[in-house]
Amino acid sequence: MEAATFVLESVARRIEQLWQLPFCNELIGVKEFVLPSGPEVEITSTLERELMGLITRSIHHLAITALLVKSFGHQLGSDFGKAPSTIVYERT
Question: Cβ distance 27 to 42 under 8 Å?
């Protein structure tokens, strides 16, 4: 668990540094295949918005990880794998 905590904290520090980049709010093109048989779809976004999406997706993966860890009998913090908005809602 110590190694995992170290890695997560390291990633969090690097993400915090990304917010400070001068081009964080510049428009970028994002391409993705929506259907395997279809063409790529391109939309306009910003690095900031894409990072927010990445964080949300990462939380989703942490929630799945929490289920696996708990199934092996390990304990995690009650907020591990929860979206910040869920934590705020539960505290109000």
Answer: no
Backbone angles phi, psi at 29, to 5 degrees: -95, 135
**Distances from the Cα of 25 to the Cα of 8, 18, 20, angstroms:** 25, 11, 10
Fill in the amino acid letter for 30: V
Domain borders along the chain are: 2-91
Rounded-to-integer distance, Cα 19 and Cα 17, Å: 5
pLDDT in tens, 49-87: 888 888 888 888 889 999 999 999 999 888 888 888 999
Nearest to 31 by CA among 22, 40, 39: 40
Phi, psi of 17 (to 5 degrees): -70, -30
Give the list of residues 6+ apart from residue 92 with CB closer than 8 angstroms, or none: none
pLDDT in tens, 18-53: 778 888 788 999 999 999 998 999 999 998 888 888
